[in-house]
Amino acid sequence: MSGLTIDRERCIGCGRCVKACASSALKLVWEGPRKFAQVGDACVFCGSCVDACPVDAISIAKDGAADAQELASYRGIWVFAQVDAAGHVMDVAFELLGRARQLADERGCTLTALIGEGADGTDENARRLVAAGADEVLVCRDARLARPDAEVFAHWICEMARAFRPEVILYGATAFGRELAPGVAVRLKTGLTADCTVLAMDPETGLLQQTRPAFGGNLMATIVCPAHRPQMATVRPGIFAAPAADETRTGEIRYVTLDASVAPRVRVLDSEPVGTGRSIADAERLVVVGRGIGSKKNLAVARRLADAIGAELGCTRPLVEAGWLEYPHQVGQTGVSVAPKLLVSLGVSGAIQHLAGIGGAQTVIAVNEDAEAPIFGAAHYKVVGDCIQVAEALIDALA
Description:
Elements: E1 3-6, H1 16-20, E2 26-31, E3 34-39, H2 48-52, E4 58-61, H3 68-72, E5 77-80, H4 91-107, E6 111-117, H5 124-131, E7 136-141, H6 150-164, E8 168-172, H7 175-188, E9 193-196, E10 198-201, E11 208-214, E12 219-223, E13 231-235, E14 252-255, E15 285-289, H8 299-309, E16 312-315, H9 317-321, E17 342-346, H10 352-355, E18 363-368, E19 381-384, H11 387-398
Parallel strand pairs: 5-6, 5-8, 6-7, 7-14, 8-13, 9-13, 15-16, 15-17, 17-18, 18-19
Antiparallel strand pairs: 1-4, 2-3, 10-11, 11-12
Helix pairs in contact: 6-7, 8-11
């Protein structure tokens, strides 16, 4: 069992641990002529008190990692297929299936899609998941799954994971996915890497390598979970390209149930859509501008180019911070991840967090005066020059 232990034989009642505890979980109590430190329920096992104790009287015991035989009993990759309010599988699920299919082939294991929907669901969603690459689909139709209740879904996924023991579970980093995945991780006592931009299998260890920007996007960190299963990660929409549907694929559709004892604790009285505007994440063509356009007035040129090619307008974070464009236009790890068929990049240097958000683009045309700009590493066509002059020339050519 995990927990914090205080050795009363060593404790001298100095109170340093109490001062170090940010959760106010420790206090000093008298027992006879001596004072001792005592831990309460607010402890989060951060270890600050362990470091503060001058006599090594405090220790934290953690649950032991699974042994090799236990870890080997987990097999297969799962993708949680979230459905929208209309009951259709969301695009991010297909994007995840495309990458997971490649990982499953490398690993030599089964790829399973997991879908929970209301009692009136049909097999159409399951068939689409098979066509996108799933070998099997676990389907649960239950009125309790008709709305995105993270607690109910977490109970169901944990029940399935304990029964079938997958080695990997992937989730889309939607608002619901970001709420759901941590709840599953806590219940299964495993790890979770959020907002991954790269997923790969280590050929030697078989571990899932989960890569995401770290330290404010200044570097990329690759994270592994060697001692616990399942390995879990969330991936933002638009990071991977969705595969073309193959209607000739065959797969097994298995119907599962949700434990009858699971009951929603939240009752929804009413709901309203956040907005009805078109998101740049849905755009097939996109013109993205960065600080290299020089000034706000040059946005007009970028808009003319976007109109000429039937594209939406996006931007980098500095332009949003400067007030040139609003946040819904921001492309990157801290904005919107996009996967257009065509992306024209004007004056964008290509910071890590921006590149993380355009990884799904099929064709990237980059224009920048700096021949060493990182954006060129992600571009299929590269133009070194003044981005506004190049944009105006393109507009004239398309007129």
